[in-house]
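Section 3.1: Structural characterization of target chains.
Under the original work plan, the team committed to producing a structural model for every single-chain target entering the pipeline before any wet-lab resources were allocated. The record below documents one such target. The sequence was received from the expression subgroup and is listed exactly as submitted; it comprises 285 residues.
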Amino acid sequence: MEIRRYVPLFKFRICTLITYSAIVGFIATNSGLHSLDRMLFLIIATMLAASSASIFNHYFDSDIDAEMTRTRKRPLPSRDIVSSRLVLVLALLLFGASLVVSFKALNYMVALHLALGAFVYTVIYTVWLKRRSWLNIIIGGLAGSFAVLAGGASAQPQLCLPPVLLAIVMFFWTPSHFWSFAILHREDYERAGIPMLPVLIGNTKTAFYILINTIALVFTSLIPFFMGYTGWIYFVSAVAVGVYFIVLNIQLIRNTTKDMAWRNFKSSMIYLGVLFTSVIVDRIV
């Protein structure tokens, strides 16, 4: 068995983003970089849960992945990996390992949030909604929000407001992020029969909804500051990247080319990276 064939199953870039979101939830709750051993176990548990969800996604989407240019070279549709059963077993093992680490090294609330995140991404998004409703990515976006909550729970098992507010930010961020991506790959989704928003209503209307959602996202991102949970570093960062993101969204409405959709997609990553990093800087400065 060649390990390299299995590497694409893990979607390491997405898993890293999810894990970073959990770290931000931890630091927002823990008021600093204390308990580094606890953070290490959080990183391990989150990476395991996110990796298992990614592998489940490959397993259940192998048929439609074969229909899309972007995904047809993935290990299962390309037959680089022949045994889908082995892929399923690997996903289950990683999911179980995540729960064991969470229960043994952290607490049951971390395990619950990570399990819910994996369940939303695997069952609610991939198996149920992705092929049936344009709401797929909106509800599926809860998967990332649960990672933030898991981070908060690793520092304080009782539900507290800072990670909840950041989880809401993560929830609103996902549609603006993914709908730009969906515009970029609209033909692929249409070919595979996936009801992503651009397939149903076109690129221009989707760009308008992206703008509306981003405005809600930016306003939501300011709530932690006005409630006294973050400082001026976070506020200035949130305003700056928020304006930047909104301007690019307006440009996308005027010009719905793939190049502009790609710029919006990349800018959404910059937005979240700057915003969440400012939470960490705000706490440790």
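The radius of gyration is 19 Å.
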